[in-house]
Write a structure and sequence with these properties.
By secondary structure, the protein is α/β, with parallel strands linked by helices. The chain folds into 2 domains: about 120 residues, Aspartate Aminotransferase, domain 1; about 250 residues, 3-Layer(aba) Sandwich (Aspartate Aminotransferase, domain 2), CATH 3.40.640.10. Strands 2-8-7-6-5-3-4 form a 7-stranded mixed beta sheet, with helices on both faces. It has a 4-stranded antiparallel beta sheet with strand order 9-10-13-12, with helices on one face. Strands 1-11 form a two-stranded parallel sheet.
Length: about 375
């Protein structure tokens, strides 16, 4: 199988991730739930994971790193901490439903800074215009999950700091690929999954907290057990219930893998594969590839369409040839609306450090065959 669906889940992971998670099943209990060795070892593993994430993302205190089930969980905490019904919230035109659905549920006054695909200056101009009209909150993805478009998050963060507007960053597609300096951004929150660019297991995620959050869940924390309100300190305030310690053990190894490899090397490798893919698709008659002219504004995600063919059918045909990718709207109708693909959707291919040029060449041969006119 050629796996090109890492924007959904990095199925191919470092061997240490699975080995560590498997070892944890029989050796780690629950952090904060006892002074015996399995509980203490679990607490040490959890803290080591917080420390590794704090180093990678430049967070002052490891206790500002909160474990979540996924990015959606973290985004819900962040959004419901800072937004209220009627709040004026500015988002980009490239957001996932993990951002837009919680905001719609809160009935906020939603404003979209759309810009153009792969046009960072236009996006920044639209954000500046909307912020000048007034805003209570900005929520912005770092990278579009549909097109791999890198938004100018550092510049957007600077606009927010100048105006005193809190910023929530959705780092679902950038964490583990692009540098993310949480201190420098001055963001209120940044949410990310563990199972994509961080190479951890499903059911893991991280929320980086720059402001005091409101709990989304209440329950046991292993601390301040007499108190009937949630603790007022992190990370306990947000971590009610039993930890996914097996997932956290695996995530720790994913973070260590990235530290050893280096994000610059990861990004360069993904960019090279996407250029190979996009240029190859552009040469196929009837294929439309959404490839940035400037490689610096696109990560390892690329969408394409074949003229006259349903994207779902194309994805299914590739799947039958052992090529795993995703077709449709990718839980991001707003991004498709901004990119002009809402009516058709796209076929999305996404790479990781485990993909090769040879696999991309095989993928291109398969697309060329599917695109060939039938007589």
């Amino acid at each position: 199988m050629i796996y090109l669906d890492s924007a959904a889940t990095t199925l191919q992971k470092p061997a240490a991730v699975a080995a560590s998670a498997a070892w944890a099943v029989g050796h780690l209990a629950s952090p904060g739930r006892g002074g015996h060795k399995p509980a203490m070892a679990a607490a040490e593993t959890a803290f080591a994971c917080r420390e590794a994430a704090a180093r990678l993302f430049h967070v002052d205190d490891p206790e500002q790193v909160v474990f979540t089930f996924n990015a959606t969980h973290g985004l819900n905490i962040a959004i419901k901490t800072l937004a209220r019904p009627g709040s004026r919230v500015v988002i980009s035109g490239w957001e996932h439903n993990a951002v837009t659905r919680p905001l719609h549920a809160l009935d906020v006054d939603l404003r979209v800074a759309r810009g153009g695909l792969f046009d960072q200056e236009a996006v920044l101009k639209d954000f500046r215009r909307e912020l000048n009209r007034g805003a209570d909150l900005v929520v912005c993805t770092h990278v579009s999950n549909v097109f791999g478009f890198i938004l100018p998050i550092e510049d957007i963060a600077a606009l927010c700091r100048e105006r005193g507007v809190p910023l929530i960053v959705d780092a679902s597609q950038s964490a583990g690929v692009l540098p993310l300096d949480f201190q420098a951004l001055g963001a209120a929150f940044a949410a990310m999954p563990g199972h994509k660019g961080l190479y951890g297991p499903q059911g893991t995620g991280l929320l980086l907290c720059g402001v005091d959050p409101a709990p989304l869940l209440e329950g046991g924390t292993g601390s301040e057990s007499k108190r009937q309100a949630m603790p007022d300190f992190l990370p306990d305030r947000l971590e009610a219930g039993t930890y996914n310690i097996t997932g956290i053990a695996g995530l720790l190894e994913g973070l260590r893998f990235l530290q050893r490899r280096g994000l610059e090397r990861v990004a360069a490798g993904e960019s090279q594969l996407i250029r190979h893919m996009g240029e190859g698709l552009t040469a196929i008659p009837g294929a439309e590839a959404f490839l940035a002219a400037d490689p610096s504004v696109q990560t390892g995600v690329l969408s394409f369409r074949l003229r006259g063919q349903d994207c779902e059918d194309v994805g299914e045909a590739l799947g039958e040839q052992g090529i795993a990718l995703r077709a449709g709207l990718h839980c991001a109708p707003l991004a498709h609306e901004s990119g002009g693909t809402l009516d058709t959707g796209t076929v999305r291919a996404s790479v990781s450090v485990f993909n090769t040029d040879r696999e991309i060449s095989q993928f291109l041969r398969a697309v060329r065959e599917i695109a060939r006119p039938r007589t």
